[in-house]
Amino acid sequence: MNRLNRFSLWIVITSASLPVMAGSIIAPILNMMREGLNADPASVGYIITTHGLFIALFSPLFGIIIDKSGTKRPLVFGLILYGLAGASGIFITSYWVMIISRALLGVAAAAIFTTITVMILNLYAGAERNKVMGWRVSSSNLGGVFWPLIGGLLGRISWHIPFAAYLIAIPLGICALFVVPDVRGGKVQVDGDVNKEDSVFKIFKSTPVLFAILGLMFTSSVLLFNIVVFIPQLLEKKGISNPFYIGLFLSIIGIAAALTALNYARIKARLSNKKIIVIALVLWTVGFIIISQVSSNWIIALSIALFGIGFGAILPMAMVWVGENVPISFRGRVSSFLPTCGFIGQFLSPIIFGPIALSLGLNNVFLVTGGISAILLLLFLFGIRKW
User: Cα–Cα distance between 189 and 320 in angstroms, integer?
Assistant: First the structure.
């Protein structure tokens, strides 16, 4: 067993879009939910962010489970729980019950995200691993484009109806139970694998590049949600307030990232990890600074695309890079820190940049973000000699 058959791969790649779906499909109906649940404007935002916090908290637990018992059980469990917890919103009329359901959804998404990462790392190698990981990231980003559109269309019937879309995870879970292989990394011995005396702490201590990878995952997520949170407000200042048009601007990230990730294997065949990071940081620096200085909506859209291109290359690179530096028996535990860092970054982004927006204005938020990207680029170029 060294790869998934076509149907199994389809199940895995389709499931990869579900963690993104968790928040994106209900984003268009958030205002309707606020009224339906009798929640205040500040509290309703937690319906979107709660699942991300629980993904961050529970991913390391599933990393341990995957290394000990394999990938099939966590994947099937995650998909079934995802469908049940997500679809429960069809019937929920209480704000706090909704928050509990979103927490359970985050637990399920943590299992799905981490399991798929480890499964691809353990079943594929080399150029084929790059290709499949690129497909996985492309699926996630395309989900970020299409799920909000589906949620918006279903929400025109009732704000409860979009929650029915979560039920797609249940047939995926049933199919996974019968056709997706159980990958047990802890029982596989490969050259360079560690012995039973090693630990996650020792892995990190002996492989400091892992800290850089996780830091990159955190940073890219912080910058991503800087756009998600503040671009709509910037566009509103420029006279664009229609949610559909704002959604189109935000979808540029997903489209650009999906197309880049889809071609990640070709990119990686020509560029090293270090060069990919340098190019991404250059694109982010240029893109954010341009957003802060121009008034043309078309140029802003192009600048958003620059971020998406870098983001679409960084995500599969980070996942594959972890796999290349971690023994197979520890990939579940170490890979689980990727979603933890990513979703903590998403959660903290408004907290980090909110005060800047209030004190310096929206344009300067992006100027500061561009400056941060430039500083990271310089630090990386300085530190690259030590790698």
Answer: 19
What CATH number is given for 6-386 in this structure?
A: 1.20.1250.20
Report the predicted TM-score, pTM, of the whole model to 2 decimal places.
Answer: 0.84
What residues does each domain of the chain span?
6-386
Q: How many CB atoms within 10 Å of residue 14?
A: 15
What is the pLDDT tens value at each position of the chain, 387 positions in all?
Answer: 467 888 999 999 999 999 988 888 887 787 788 888 988 766 777 888 889 899 999 999 999 999 998 999 999 999 999 999 999 999 999 999 999 999 999 999 999 999 999 999 999 989 999 999 999 999 998 988 888 888 888 888 889 999 999 999 999 999 999 999 988 765 444 444 444 446 888 888 888 889 999 999 999 999 998 888 888 888 888 888 776 787 788 889 989 999 999 999 999 999 999 999 999 999 999 999 999 999 899 999 999 999 999 999 999 999 999 988 888 888 889 999 999 999 899 888 888 888 898 899 889 999 999 999 999 999 888 876 655
